[in-house]
Amino acid sequence: MSHLLELSGVHTHIGAYHILHGVDLQVPEGEVTMLLGRNGAGKSTTLRTIMGLWAASAGSVRLAGCPIGGPGGHLPTPDIAQRGVAYVPEGMGIFGELTVSENLLLAARSARREADLDPARLEWLFGLFPALHKFWRYPAGKLSGGQKQMLAVARALIEPRALLLVDEPSKGLAPAIVQNLIAAFAELKRQRATLLLVEQNFMMARALGDHVAVMDNGRVVHAGSMAALADDVALQQRLLGLSLGAHQ
User: Fold this and answer.
1) How much is the average pLDDT of 132-159?
2) Which UniProt keywords apply (predicted)?
């Protein structure tokens, strides 16, 4: 199995706080890896460390075998993005005063104006998220929460990416919107995209995940197949304190 992303012994400090305590994580190429764990386990910090927003104080982060993070190998976030890594933060990070089209244009490094956007890529995104076509000229700040999340994901996908990092995409969304997101991510999965998703919605995790890593207290305490975790109620209780079956 080829791993596109590998974290080995990664520690991250934020000021005086030691958040990650030796994270080991592998993300296979062309598959979906779910990063699960209780609140405060270090999941969001892991994504931000991969993206270079916070520097690893020890260990290494490697993308396609090349170091992008860790002492002596830390790349700035723009350089990591240039290597094809896209990040959708928990807060979405959209620009509310700009239109849907302007938000997407800002994320398209190869386009300076709307006419430069790849029309085939846009049609593909509209197929995943039809609301974006409908509200193309609307200020993004006027979209619903679910539509803003769709825009945040679409912005990460406006150009082909090697790796997509998404932090809690379903948080706070209505069940119908969550189903729309599951369908969109499932389409990416069919196209053999490489995704690392932090998620608290276990129905979504089970529907999408090929692999799972569970974090606790700044470490990965379990790694394996998502299907195996979904089938093992005792393991769910031990690692997460709840049963995936209760979230069907």
Assistant:
1) 91
2) Amino-acid transport, ATP-binding, Cell membrane, Membrane, Nucleotide-binding, Transport
